[in-house]
Amino acid sequence: MSKVLYNILIPVVVLLLCPACITEVDVGACNNTVIRFEYLADGQEDVFPEYISSVTYCIYDGEGGIVTQATLDKNMLDEFQGLKLRLHSAGDYSLVAWGNLGTHCELYSEEKLSDGKVAHPSETPGTFDRLYLGTLSFNLESVDGRHEWVAPLHSAHVTLNAYIQSTLSEAAGAYAIRVGKFATGVSNSGETLGPDRDYCPVFTDDIEGRIKSTTWLPRFDENTEATIEVFSTISESNVASVKLSDYISANNIRITGVEEAVIDVLISVSGTNISIKFPGWKPKPVYPSI
Question: Is 168 within 8 Å of 54 (Cβ atoms)?
Answer without folding.
Answer: no
